[in-house]
Amino acid sequence: MPPVSELMMFALALAAAGVVAGLLAGLFGIGGGAILVPVFYQVFGLLGIDDAVRMHLSVGTSLAIIVPTSVRSFLSHYKRGVVDMALLRNWTVAVPLGAILASVIASSVSSGTLRLIFAVIALAVAFRMLFNRASWRLGSDLPRNPVKWLVGVAIGILSGLMGIGGGVLNNTFMTLYGRPIHQAVATSAGVGVLISIPGLFGYVWAGWGLPGLPPLSTGFINWIAVALIIPITLLVAPLGVRAAHAMNRRQLETGFGVFMILIAARFLYSLYG
Fold it and tell me: Which domain holds residue 260?
């Protein structure tokens, strides 16, 4: 057991991450997972958590925290009337199915594989946001089913493997088909709800009974981290929503792209540094 002073430092680091995660949940509609996963990975490493379960634990715990954060963020955006409810209704089965499949995949892949998936997707999304051009469009409106439904499954799978709420992928999908970034951000909060709830149960199942997990963990969910960060993220998420609606499209895209590059660099360094 680490000294009390070290545990206090870890708690403060997690609390600070909770503030940032909550702001990002509202600002980008990403559920906060993009910041929580790398922070958890670092903190769990300092606590001596087995590398074999460290990334999986980070992803699963992030998804558990995203549940209330996404709900709070979604309700805040919904009140502003900018959520695409038709798209969310179409994805009611598709996105949760993808999240469940992600937990099945995660149960059989390595920590390094999960980190690589996170970094590659983050870089792809960052490139799209930073170098966005008006001509980068796949269509004037969202595709019809079954393409749209399959995209929902894919977003659920990739987001579930990254431990994020789906905003990084849904924002890209919707803007490529001409939807306003503010509508994409608002709808992404709802996508986060569809991903995080089945993802939580999936990661409990995937890690059930495995050795090397820290105290007060159920599968790949650590409830100490969940209990510490959820109140903070719930408190600050509406502030991020307010900020999102005060910024223009290019500011949102640039900030989002820079953020994802920093996160991708951190994981690539952990793999090859």
Answer: 4-272
